[in-house]
Sequence to fold (430 residues):
Amino acid sequence: MRTAERKRPRRTRERILETSLALFNASGAPHVTTADIADEMNISPGNLYYHFSNKDEIVLELYVAYEARVLPLYADPRGRSLGVEDLWLWLHVQHEAMWEYRFLYRDLTELTSRDRRLRTRVAALIRKGATTVVEWCREMAETGTMRISAREIEALADNVMLIAAYWPAYDRNRRATLDDAPDPGRAAYQVLSLFGPYFADEARTHLDRLSAAYL
Amino acid sequence: MRTAERKRPRRTRERILETSLALFNASGAPHVTTADIADEMNISPGNLYYHFSNKDEIVLELYVAYEARVLPLYADPRGRSLGVEDLWLWLHVQHEAMWEYRFLYRDLTELTSRDRRLRTRVAALIRKGATTVVEWCREMAETGTMRISAREIEALADNVMLIAAYWPAYDRNRRATLDDAPDPGRAAYQVLSLFGPYFADEARTHLDRLSAAYL
Fold:
């Protein structure tokens, strides 16, 4: 009994996060209130406020969980084997995490404009991601897998991060729909296509086969 | 006197649009109310409602003006001279229009989710833009300016439209700021960098000079 009581607050906290994530992903965080979350969980607003003082706190904690998923992917890639397959896998794992927390990118400007802590962390993560892509490209340029200049690498890294972040929003807008396409792989395909023309012949043929198989 | 009276309503309507555009660009359309607009103009809310029944109507009319600016750029490019310089100019003109109406892209998902008419028109414009890029690339591939496959053209066209639309939002987020960078040219540079590796040698050298001069 004592154990159950000790555990309950933690469990409620986790359930608030899980429920919020589901509601945010379904409707967009700006359209979900703490009252909606409490209602969905059949708990009182007071119980929710015991754990989180407002919605921004919930968003931030979900962001921290997302960041923890993604950061290991942004470890310094130097010295590792880096071929087309590695890049394809890396993009897929990253996009799975982005898909799981897709509400973050759905209203990124709105969410970051509301909370300076979130804004600072998001910016740091984007820059870390771009730096990883730069290191990755330099490594592939040195081994001859890519033919790309230093300036091209800089522009490419930002385009990679941008398309990764905004593909779902772009895709909804071009299809005139509010629903996400149930295909996180398509974003990875679009990002990978940025690398394609820089690959030397063998790697480019390999990429072409992967792309054809995907489509 | 009679002329002045006939002209006033039209002038008020135009001023509402101009004031709304300025406020939307400065603060984001979701954060501006019709009361803010009337207040900024020193007119009564009733006067504003005489011209526009709500904010969505103002947003839609501004969008229609933006669309009229951009559509001529999406005319069928076949048969025209299409070199690196033309592409660079085309991107700059497009990005100037996007910069002038930047509130549209700042909260695109939010705005299109509120208004089906806007959603349908935005989707049509994006698809028309992507089709123009596809035609443009096919033309350059035929004349030997680009070396690119049909599949690569499709992926490139979406990446072009995506980066054009979302560069300002991405740029703010990576810099952890709420302010737009006062450099619409940078978006055009990022988009042009997508074409670079597909250009055949002479065009690529030309692009490299343009890029170096820009940076």
Notes: The radius of gyration of chain B is 20 Å.
